[in-house]
């Protein structure tokens, strides 16, 4: 469900501690050395956890360890089982080679999560948060996200941070939100950069700081995050926190548009139409609007509808124009709804129609 961010090897030691705890629950009487090692693995501070070499050396010094734990099943077997359950959960969640089965995917994630696999803990937490395949339970979502975050898993730190920011399933705590997002950014996690940038941009729980917001968005943009590229374009277009520079706007918006970001394609169309940061080119403007409209950007659909209705750069075709307005209207675009109702009603013809279109076009052009 997510890409793996960078993490410390000590996060895996914590996961091993969780597995050791599961095994210990099944043991008749685990050796004292085993209990001591388990406690060290579960230290909240990663630096206090043992190294892999220390763990291996301790296991070798404990006689008949496998026989005293989980009927001789052994840690390595359970770790393999956790990874297998997680892979099967992903397959069921995505419908890869089988039908999508969210309930069974959640159960597979649960098995792996109970054995300490942080990716499974995160995915299970998100399924509880969204109510996918299981009953939506924000408290349980937080419980599993916290377990994964405690292992330093950046996606979990980010989602948990947003939960604290918004008070979703936990009391609102912007300090905790900031700390969690900050921890995730140190691992280079793109979503954390964007969410922390948003906090600085809006002054949400921190002092508003556009310079810091732009710095974080730029890091996300450098990792090819199209949403961050579009937002940087907006900062440069409006001169917020930076000197207004339409060429920089065009540079960032184009990067996102070329990756298929619908809003970016629409904005780039307006920039070509108005000659902002790029040479004025109405043909290119219409090409980008059409691409954005086909990608279900409702603003572009509204504008393409107007192009056909007015015959601007295309053959005049009122029905085709109304079809595009219908698509935008179905997505909740109020301008498209108004235009569609005006243009499709027999009582709204001639002069009133001619007066309405320029007014709506002017509103749409105020894009940035």
From TrEMBL:
* InterPro entries with a match to the protein in the record: Kinase-like_dom_sf, Sel1-like, Sel1_AlgK, TPR-like_helical_dom_sf
The record's listing under Pfam families reads:
Sel1
Q: Which family does it belong to?
A: Belongs to the sel-1 family.
**Which protein are we looking at?**
HCP-like protein
Origin species, per record, is Mortierella alpina (Oleaginous fungus)
